[in-house]
Design goal:
8-stranded mixed sheet; Rossmann fold; alpha/beta
């Protein structure tokens, strides 16, 4: 149920160390006005929907299926939110979790930790965030990473995200760090909109007039608030415990950012990236090549979860390349195998049970 795509020796070592241990999930929410660009993301059918995707996902992650959500999950162009995967597993296995607001237009209507960040401007501006906000969020990430690690010394942390438009800010950060990521990144679309992403990113990098700017200045120019928070969390936590960056392109960009920050606390051997098979095998991207470009020793894992035999069309459509990943879905699915040795039938049945409940409540 766990695919190892890169650095197999390091990957096996990490997996052996963390088998049968209960992780703590931290889901970091953020927003970038890049998400409002028409066609940039399929995580919400309209620009209006995309403003509330993260708060709706957070509410569902916390509450599960409920008859009258404050922020219903927005309709997608196809399929259902990956939060169904994350919620189903954490509910069944009682995985502890914390939700962080790194910078949203609207705070999530559930218990969460507000990091006092702000939403990012569109990266095309070259001025996504004030540098002082980025510096503050970095310190907040370091502080919380240290706290969470201290509470989970015998286990590991899963760090997830929800940022609509985040694969585009990820591309901007990767290119800004000198990594030739063009044409390699994922998206929530069935066919990745590479040309649109590249045009947007080049506009932002050009306006930022980047030369030898620091990693923090790069985030301030073209990044989003989640990236620097998760980087800080992973750096501090990795000095004490294992860390799984749960996501695809966005978490590969965070890994590259961690390397570039060059904080002496960082123990890269404790950090892996975990995603879904739909991301790792995306025919319109090349996640494995991107991981290898960032670092030969970067461990990229994916869950072998398949929806090919699901009774629900909204899940089967993942097999056609829609949605793919988000809200730590891949990382949590990997954890289900590490914690309880879940195989495909158990994992699929768990997710389908949640979908069934949600459909029944919707039709009542």
């Amino acid at each position: 149920m766990i695919n190892i795509h890169t650095a197999k020796e390091q990957a096996n070592s990490w997996l052996i160390r963390h088998r049968a241990k209960m992780p703590h999930l931290s889901c970091v929410l953020g927003f970038t006005a890049t998400a409002l660009i028409p066609g940039i993301s399929a995580a919400g059918a309209t620009a209006e929907d995309r403003q509330y995707t993260a708060v709706a996902d957070a509410e569902f992650l916390f509450k599960g299926s409920s008859p009258n959500p404050i922020y219903p999950l927005p309709p997608l162009s196809a399929g259902v939110s990956p939060v169904f995967i994350s919620r189903a597993v954490i509910e069944e296995l009682s995985i502890p979790f914390t939700i962080f607001n790194a910078g949203l237009p609207t705070p999530p209507p559930i218990p969460h930790i507000d990091l006092q960040g702000i939403s990012a401007n569109c990266l095309t501006s070259g001025q996504a965030l004030p540098l002082e906000v980025v510096e503050h969020l970095y310190q907040a990430g370091l502080s919380w990473g240290s706290k969470l690690a201290a509470l989970n010394l015998e286990s590991y942390l899963i760090l997830g995200e929800c940022v609509v438009g985040g694969t585009t800010t990820a591309l901007a950060v990767l290119l800004g760090l000198g990594i030739e990521a063009a044409g390699l990144v994922n998206s929530s679309h069935r066919q990745c909109n590479h040309q649109q992403k590249i045009q947007i990113v080049h506009q932002g990098l050009s306006r930022a007039q980047l030369k030898a700017l620091s990693a923090l200045e790069l985030i301030a120019a073209v990044g989003d608030p989640m990236q620097i928070v998760v980087a800080g969390m992973a750096i501090a936590a990795s000095s004490q415990v294992g860390v799984m960056l749960a996501g695809g392109t966005q978490m590969l960009a965070v890994y590259a950012l961690i390397q570039n920050l060059n904080n002496p606390l960082t123990k890269l051997e404790n950090i892996v990236v975990g995603t879904t098979r739909w991301v790792a095998q995306d025919p319109t991207a090349d996640t494995v090549k991107l991981a290898s470009l960032i670092d030969d020793n970067l461990v990229l894992l994916s869950t072998n979860l398949s929806f090919a035999d699901s009774i629900y069309p909204s899940l089967r459509i993942y097999e056609q390349g829609y949605v793919k990943e988000g809200v730590a879905a891949g990382g949590v699915a990997i954890a289900s195998n590490l914690i309880a040795n879940w195989q495909q039938p158990t994992l699929l049945n768990c997710i389908e049970s949640l979908v069934k409940r949600a459909l029944l409540e919707k039709n009542e």
